[in-house]
């Protein structure tokens, strides 16, 4: 199948490479000429495990271009994978999706299946149908399909190749597109969930909202565990073994970040309020998430009341491990607060970069740790599990380790004389040693 993927970001580039791997002829287009130049030179523009290898392996099936009209003209299937960021009031900004639909309207000379992969508010795909008709595109020339994406950054390739489901939202009575989608995904072993356009849009928002709510729930439980001397890790294990609850997404910490949970929650809150529904649970989820960084700042200040000129080393910048993405990263929010308290902030991240004043970023973890007054682990990169605490002990001024992800081996850290500070990590003396 000849496909045009519009947008060469995390979702677009991964989709393009995966569909090339499935044997389709893919043109991936982006208006960012720098991105396209790099991709044409053979360098990958994002860090995503396995993506580069797959691209090299299947590059005969994929090309990159800035010429969006030409790619649309040739393709029978068009995937929209442009960003849908957040406006200041929480509403999803659809300017890029609208830009693309105008370009498509000007370029349709044969039938196109237009698939929206971008996360868009409920009713957007119906609106796209209306826009195309208003622009006098013949009804027989297009079908719109909502096919939201559920991949996670850091495991995007794996998630796209082995999804737990493929959600397909169709226009009324459109069986033709379902056949098209089955051909598109041929080779992927996953059940299809078929629904209306709005149904698919809602599934995407409900999925992200539920996962974010699970995290905020655990963060609230961790705050309670903290005062009652209960270990939240025991609680996660205890409740997670119940299949009705499930063991995933129970990791308490500094809160969720990334380009999607925060913006998608805000967007659903906005949409609900517009319909005069007050989404109290979603609002509480967001509020807990926003204030989670403050919980850690309070903990830090209980050990170092005056942060002025204190050297604080922050390990991790990205919003989660295995990605270089720092969009809405809690680590960055924490760094801003430290800077506002006049601390001297040193940072290290295996992949992510962040340039700002009053923060020094190091290329080697040990350089970031020299003479520090406190180590804060802000992202749970595996690399930090293997730190040589014996060596670190000799480098630092003070022995405080604030683990905002509750993921370090506490015994190992304490064995070397560090004070380990987590959230809800009170010691349970009755359990077996880790
Ligand atoms: N990042 C993720 O893990 C996931 C993202 N999503 C959703 O997928 C969508 C895309 O997200 P990302 O890939 O993260 O975004 P991104 O920001 O990484 O990439 C979007 C790309 O679209 C390009 N673009 C914008 N307007 C364009 C136009 N008119 N013509 C051609 N290219 C254009 C931009 O230059 C950019 O390269 C969003 O709606 C997001 O919510 C869904 C699931 C996972
Ligand atoms: O719509 C999207 O963009 C995507 O959003 C999330 O994927 P992603 O943001 O890449 O990463 P997650 O693994 O979900 O983590 C999100 C945030 O929650 C945090 N998190 C995750 C799990 C957990 O138990 N605790 C926790 O604090 C992570 O550290 C991270 O900051 C969803 O998991 C994907 O299914 C979805 O496609």
TrEMBL record:
Reaction equation(s) it catalyzes: UDP-alpha-D-glucose + 2 NAD(+) + H2O = UDP-alpha-D-glucuronate + 2 NADH + 3 H(+)
Amino-acid positions noted as binding NAD(+) in the UniProt annotation, renumbered to this chain: 30, 35, 84, 119, 153, 263, 327
EC number(s) reported in the record: 1.1.1.22
Domain of life: Bacteria
Pathway where it operates: Nucleotide-sugar biosynthesis; UDP-alpha-D-glucuronate biosynthesis; UDP-alpha-D-glucuronate from UDP-alpha-D-glucose: step 1/1
Pfam families the UniProt entry points to: UDPG_MGDP_dh (PF00984), UDPG_MGDP_dh_C (PF03720), UDPG_MGDP_dh_N (PF03721)
Keyword Heme: no
UniProt name for this protein: UDP-glucose 6-dehydrogenase
């Amino acid at each position: 199948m000849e496909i045009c993927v519009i947008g060469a970001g995390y979702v677009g580039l991964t989709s393009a490479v995966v569909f090339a791997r499935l044997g389709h002829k893919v043109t991936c287009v982006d208006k960012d000429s720098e991105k396209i130049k790099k991709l044409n030179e053979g360098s990958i523009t994002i860090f995503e495990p396995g993506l580069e290898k797959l691209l090299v392996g299947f590059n005969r099936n994929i090309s990159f271009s800035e010429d969006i009209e030409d790619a649309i003209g040739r393709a029978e299937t068009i995937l929209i994978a442009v960003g849908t960021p957040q406006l200041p009031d929480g509403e999803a900004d659809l300017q890029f999706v609208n830009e693309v639909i105008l370009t498509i309207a000007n370029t349709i000379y044969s039938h196109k299946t237009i698939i929206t992969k971008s996360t868009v508010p409920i009713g957007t795909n119906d609106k796209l149908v209306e826009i195309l008709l208003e622009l006098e595109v013949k009804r027989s020339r297009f079908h719109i399909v909502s096919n939201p994406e559920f991949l996670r950054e850091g495991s995007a390739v794996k998630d796209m190749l082995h999804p737990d489901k493929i959600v397909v939202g169709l226009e009324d009575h459109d069986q033709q597109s379902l056949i098209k989608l089955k051909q598109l995904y041929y080779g992927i072993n996953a059940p299809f969930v078929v629904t209306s356009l709005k149904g698919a849009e809602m599934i995407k928002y409900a999925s992200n909202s539920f996962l974010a709510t699970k995290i905020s729930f655990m963060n609230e439980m961790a705050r309670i565990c903290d005062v009652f001397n209960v270990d939240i890790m025991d609680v996660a294990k205890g409740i997670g073994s119940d299949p009705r609850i499930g063991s995933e997404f129970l990791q308490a910490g500094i809160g969720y970040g990334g380009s999607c949970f925060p913006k998608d929650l805000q967007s659903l809150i906005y949409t609900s309020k517009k319909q005069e529904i007050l989404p109290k649970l979603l609002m509480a989820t967001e509020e807990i998430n926003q204030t989670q960084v403050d919980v850690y700042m309070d903990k830090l200040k209980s050990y170092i009341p005056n942060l002025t000129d204190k050297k604080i080393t922050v390990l991790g910048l990205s919003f989660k491990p295995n990605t270089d993405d720092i969009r809405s990263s809690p680590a960055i929010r924490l760094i801003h607060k430290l800077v506002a308290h006049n601390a001297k902030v040193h940072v290290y991240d295996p992949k992510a970069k962040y340039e700002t004043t009053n923060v020094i970023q190091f290329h080697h973890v040990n350089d970031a740790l020299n003479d520090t007054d406190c180590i804060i682990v802000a992202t749970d990169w595996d690399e930090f599990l293997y730190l040589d605490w014996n060596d670190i002990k000799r480098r630092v001024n003070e022995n405080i380790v604030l683990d905002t992800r509750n993921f370090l081996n506490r015994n190992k850290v304490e064995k070397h004389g560090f004070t380990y500070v987590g959230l809800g990590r009170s010691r349970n003396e009755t359990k077996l040693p880790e």
